[in-house]
Write a structure and sequence with these properties.
The chain is mainly beta and 286 residues long. Helices cover 0% and strands 51% of the residues. The strands form 4 sheets. Strands 1, 2, 3, 4, 5, 8, 9, 10, 11 and 12 form a 10-stranded mixed sheet that branches. A hairpin with a 2-residue loop joins strand 19 (265-273) and strand 20 (276-284).
């Protein structure tokens, strides 16, 4: 559930999907959650509070480790590999509501630059229950100008997720927490999950992207033990065409690269460690 917001919706937020078309000739950008943003030169963001998010009451976070706080949760329509991010901090200066400057009518309106988030954390999840922090960083305070162009955030380096949780950890001294806009680059990913009974252990899954691919594939591995895992690439007849070892340094999500020099067709990637095996189908299109 989204945190309490000032304004109609979270239409201030833009998430970019980078999807290769069938001929792999260009990247197509799709915009979601944004029906009312007016674009301007150099991606400037205006000072309107109607195109910003402002949270003035702490709520219990979907990630129980975070406790109560000011947060935004995005539930994507599928699994995506996340990469570049860009942020615009809260850009609405202090305002006074008044009638003909009469003293009885002077009323401070919600939102000031001090409500801008100073320190922010990004958590990701596949199921909305198990969370992993992938970034914690600081944002500069906005100047409250219509020429404000924001700043680059961290590169999430292909981490796969269906849920994205942004948590404001510190602000610039205001009573609320606010942001103006955020962009996250995404590539569709496929995933295969092994459900285990022991809830104290990380979720075991294998994911890859892009699919279809021209040959260069990124593989996300989670929940395997520290050490070596074996991988094989087979065709539809089960013939092994490629195999090797990947070194796993953590039980949490790691990204490996696979160069599949194969003809166009359907193939299977399998990853093994002891009695554990996870497989995924992928397509090569040239």
């Amino acid at each position: 559930m989204y945190n309490k917001m000032y304004g109609k919706s979270i239409s201030f937020v833009i998430l970019y999907f980078k999807i290769l078309n069938q001929m792999f000739s260009k990247v197509i950008a799709f915009v979601i959650l944004s029906s009312s943003i007016a674009w301007s030169q150099a991606d400037r963001h205006n000072t309107s509070i109607n195109q910003a998010w402002l949270s003035c009451k702490a709520n219990e976070s979907p990630n129980s480790i975070r406790g109560e706080g000011h947060w935004i949760l995005y539930t994507l329509d599928d699994y995506y590999a996340l990469d570049s991010t860009y942020f615009w901090n809260f850009n609405t200066p202090e305002r006074i509501n008044n009638y003909d400057n009469q003293s009885w009518s002077l009323l401070k309106m919600p939102g000031t630059l001090k409500d801008g988030i100073k320190k922010i954390a990004i958590d990701i999840s596949l199921n909305g229950l198990e969370w992993e922090e992938v970034a914690e960083f600081e944002l500069a305070e906005s100047k409250g100008s219509g020429f404000y162009t924001g700043e680059a955030g961290p590169d999430l380096k292909g981490r796969v997720a269906k849920y994205i949780l942004l948590s404001g950890l510190e602000n610039y001294g205001g009573e609320c927490f606010g942001l103006s806009e955020i962009r996250i680059g995404m590539t569709p990913a496929i995933i295969n999950t092994v459900y285990i009974q022991d809830k104290t252990k990380p979720l075991i899954y294998l994911s890859l992207y892009p699919n279809p691919s021209e040959g260069q594939i990124n593989v996300a591995i989670n929940g395997f033990g520290v050490g070596d895992v074996k991988y094989t690439v087979t065709n539809v007849s089960g013939v092994i065409l490629k195999e090797g070892l990947w070194k796993i340094e953590s039980q949490f999500q790691q990204i490996k690269s696979l160069q599949a020099d194969l003809e166009s067709g359907i193939y299977y990637l399998s990853v093994y460690q002891g009695d554990l095996m996870v497989s995924l189908q992928f397509d090569i299109f040239k």
